[in-house]
Specification:
The complex is a heterodimer of chains A (299) and B (328).
Chain A (H helix, E strand, L loop, with lengths): L5 H20 L3 H23 L32 H37 L1 H16 L2 H12 L3 H11 L2 H14 L3 H8 L4 H37 L10 H10 L2 H4 L2 H29 L9
Helix pairs in contact in A: 2-3, 2-12, 3-4, 3-6, 3-7, 3-9, 3-12, 4-7, 5-6, 6-9, 7-9, 8-9, 9-10, 9-12, 10-12
Chain B lengths: L4 E16 L4 E17 L3 E5 L6 H8 L7 E6 L2 E2 L5 H7 L3 E4 L13 H12 L4 H14 L16 H13 L5 E5 L7 H18 L2 E6 L2 H7 L2 E6 L2 E7 H6 L4 H8 L50 E2 L8 E2 L8
Parallel strand pairs in B: 3-8, 3-9, 6-7, 7-8
Antiparallel strand pairs in B: 1-2, 1-4, 4-5, 9-10, 10-12, 11-12
Classes of the chains: A mainly alpha (299), B alpha/beta (328).
């Protein structure tokens, strides 16, 4: 018998889906803008640090302190004579990395709790959802500050703290979708062939909540990057790492505002705003693609 | 021919609690299936008919233990399913499969046809991994689909094709019993005939036993050997097809049969119009369930619950649950 190659055609189907996805997504100007900005910063985080010399971050003599932008230092220098431009580029890597790692933790916790809670219902649901409510109502900034202060300033701890405080919304959204999916006939059918709970959750529920996870990841990533900046700015970050938040922190505490050193204060701030904005744009665009009801008719 | 018994249902009940009142206590029950008993022999097609809400689908699901029965026993191949542990039940599931009504909702939109069919083989571990692909293509050709369609997603198929996938999926485990829960109700008439004929030919080929749940008497007449008529959670009449259609004994069955449209212009067929609505299954009528709408109701019907009795003098298998079927 002539067997069609299984993997090849599955790949073709996947490509086709991706293509139709892109067709709708590319209609969305907001989404394209967000994707463009994010690509720019991603490339910056990946390749930027190789392009700027690390020596520009070392202290460079008293004469070059708090110097406005020149042809040598495109964005001027800070109070120790370090190049702000190099700082912004090198900081992008850690800022994005922390944001994405924290998002991964947050989505994993949120999705697991959401699916388990929705799938098992009853007592498990009540217990997990009240637990989620606690995380929803606790003001996250004080909680993060307390946890960061207790655990001590290190990158790993920052990632952990942000991840552990931002999953509650995801858990709620995933739970509600799970409640709907678990009642569908194909789940019952899976039971009828003798599937266990784990199999059903992984093969039937997870793939069907995936669009939601996808769209939510982008929004959580924006919050996570903002949280990293906030924590660092408030002095809970790792002082040995260059991140946008740490740059803002030092700029603020060393009096960049009163000195009028806008070249020190503005660039990291603008970068944070742009990255968060790009994630939010992508998030809205995804929402529109994945939720046909939001699509414009004329397209 | 002494047929071998495959499935025996004894006093099966399925009640759904109604939560309400203070602190969500159970205030009452919906008695969806209330004390039904019947047997299904190997190789035959038994239909479960009745109007919407009479509990026929619930009965099917309770038999498969997709919902745990409130009471009663389900004996499949001499194994009492109600006493099995979760794991034992999972193993025995490969012998009893179900085809659902809605071909659009019963397939996972994110699984290809091949994945759908392989899943059951993987879970029950009956086909070695190398043989799966071949078996998938084999199943597809059995139900009249082409091999190149194996890697397509459900939304690329029409309703009839999806139902074929549903049938192939049920077949993938070589089951003994297939419960068809309104399996053709969502299809249009020409496709319906195709699927019914497919089911019949598969039955001959694999020696399958069907429990066919339907509200469509035309379909039932086409496919069944024996018919069980349900009303409001109880069995009203059990008989083989010819006996039931030619000589219905229960007043409800008569009303039901008289509602079959006759495709002949100007044909004057006497229709038995029932008064009122189906009573609520929360608070079903005392005595005979049908007494509120029965044209022949007598005092006794309001008090005593009629048991299934043989309507044949030789004690044959035409059973009727009516106190007075001899007189009416």
């Amino acid at each position: 018998m002539n067997l069609p190659a299984y993997n090849k055609s599955a790949l073709v189907v996947w490509k086709k889906n991706l293509k139709s996805f892109w067709l709708i997504y590319s209609q969305n100007i907001m989404g394209l803008l967000g994707l463009g900005i994010l690509t720019f910063f991603a490339l910056m985080a990946i390749f930027g640090p190789y392009l700027v010399s690390i020596t520009t971050l070392t202290i460079d003599g008293v004469t070059q302190v708090m110097h406005p932008p020149t042809s040598n230092y495109w964005l001027g220098t800070d109070d120790l004579g370090k190049d702000v431009f190099a700082g912004v580029i090198i900081g992008s890597r850690v800022s994005l990395l922390v944001g994405l790692a924290a998002t991964a933790i947050s989505m994993t916790i949120g999705t697991s709790i959401g699916i388990i809670s929705g799938f098992y219902g009853k007592f498990t649901d009540t217990l997990l959802m009240r637990f989620t409510d606690v995380f929803l109502v606790i003001p996250w900034l004080p909680l993060m500050l307390v946890m960061a202060a207790l655990l001590g300033p290190s990158l790993g701890n920052i990632i952990f703290v942000i991840g552990i405080t931002s999953w509650a919304g995801t858990a709620r959204i995933i739970r509600s979708q799970t409640l709907s999916i678990k009642e569908r006939p194909y789940v019952e059918r899976a039971r009828a062939i003798g599937s266990g709970d784990g199999h059903i959750m992984i093969y039937h529920i997870l793939p069907n909540v995936f669009p939601l996870i996808f769209a939510n990841t982008v929004l959580v990533a924006a919050i996570a990057i903002l949280s990293e900046t906030t924590l660092s700015f408030l002095g809970m970050g790792d002082p040995t790492q260059v991140t946008w938040g740490m740059m803002l922190h030092f700029a603020f505490s060393m009096g960049a505002v009163s000195f009028g050193a806008w070249w020190w204060l503005l660039p990291p701030g603008i970068c944070v705003v742009l990255v968060v904005l790009s994630f939010t744009f992508i998030g809205y665009a995804l929402d529109e693609v994945l939720n046909p009801k939001l699509r414009r008719r004329d397209q | 021919m002494a047929a071998k018994e495959l499935l025996r249902v004894e006093n099966l009940k399925k009640y759904y609690p109604i939560k309400g009142g203070f602190l969500g206590r159970t205030v009452n029950f919906v008695k969806a299936v209330d004390d039904i008993s019947f047997t299904v022999n190997e190789g035959e097609t038994v239909s479960l008919v009745g109007e919407s809400g009479c509990g026929k689908s619930t009965a099917g699901r309770a038999i498969l233990h997709l919902e745990k029965p409130t009471a009663g026993e389900v004996i499949f191949e001499e194994v009492n399913l109600t006493t099995l542990s979760r794991d034992e039940l999972r193993k025995i599931r490969k012998d009893m499969q179900i085809v659902f009504q809605d071909p659009f909702a019963s397939l996972n939109p994110r699984q290809t046809v091949a994945q759908v069919l392989e899943e059951a083989m993987y879970i029950q571990n009956i086909v070695p991994p190398e043989g799966k692909r071949e078996r998938v293509l084999d199943l597809l050709s059995k139900v009249g689909l082409a091999p190149y369609q194996a890697d397509r997603y459900p939304h690329e198929f029409s309703g009839g094709q999806r139902q074929r996938i549903g049938v192939a999926r049920a077949l993938s485990l070589n089951p003994r019993l297939i419960i068809c829960d309104e399996a053709v109700s969502a299809l249009d008439v020409s496709i319906r005939a195709q699927i019914l004929n497919l089911l019949k030919s598969l039955q001959r080929e694999f020696h399958l036993t069907y429990l066919f749940i339907s509200h469509d008497l035309g379909v039932v007449r086409h496919i069944s050997d024996r018919i069980i008529v349900m009303y409001l959670g109880r069995i009203m009449e059990i008989a083989d097809k010819h006996s039931l259609f030619d000589n219905p004994r229960h007043p409800y069955t008569r009303a039901l049969l008289s509602a079959i449209p006759v495709p002949r212009p100007g044909s004057k067929k006497e229709r038995i119009m029932l008064e009122g609505d189906v009573p609520s299954a929360i608070d079903p009528p005392q005595g005979c369930r049908f007494h509120t709408r029965c044209p022949y109701v007598k005092d006794n019907c309001r008090k005593d619950v009629p048991e299934l009795r043989s309507a044949e003098t030789n004690g044959g298998s035409h059973l009727v649950a009516c106190h007075y079927f001899e007189e009416i």
